[in-house]
Amino acid sequence: MSDKINNIIEELKSLTLLEAAELVKQIEDVFNVDASAVSSSGMLMMSPSGDNQVIEEVQEKTEFDVILEEVPTPKKIAILKVVRSLTSLGLKEAKELVESVPKSIKESTSKEDADEIKGKLEEAGAKVSIK
């Protein structure tokens, strides 16, 4: 331990019980902690003071999944071609994907990419949703 910490510990040892209680009260006020709320690790827990207002920020969704919802039979081949170009799947895998709707085409993609993929699939005749 450093000399600074050793000096603080020695000073704490010399405090009376009343002085220690006053010190705890001051630490709670200054650092906005509650010494009575002890976690399993034995550390002090932070508690919000009445003066501070917690402002929750609404997190804007940044990752989207493109879901192929419906494939009309007459448009199946055109949609299959678009799915292959978007996913780089082979013919067999793309055919299985198109035939087992609803299925995810792309996961965790940006809003712009999701909209672009949706546009291409809808242009080919598919029903698509973004989640």
TrEMBL record:
GO terms of molecular function: mRNA binding; structural constituent of ribosome
A Gene Ontology cellular-component term: cytosolic large ribosomal subunit
Family: Belongs to the bacterial ribosomal protein bL12 family.
Domain Large ribosomal subunit protein bL12 C-terminal per the UniProt entry, residue ranges: 64-131
Protein name per the record: 50S ribosomal protein L12, chloroplastic
Entry keyword annotation includes Plastid: yes
GO terms for biological process, alphabetical: translation
Parts forming coiled coils: none
Record's keyword terms, sorted: Plastid, Ribonucleoprotein, Ribosomal protein
Boundaries of every Large ribosomal subunit protein bL12 oligomerization domain copy: 4-37
A Pfam short name: Ribosomal_L12_N
PANTHER family: 39S RIBOSOMAL PROTEIN L12, LARGE RIBOSOMAL SUBUNIT PROTEIN BL12M
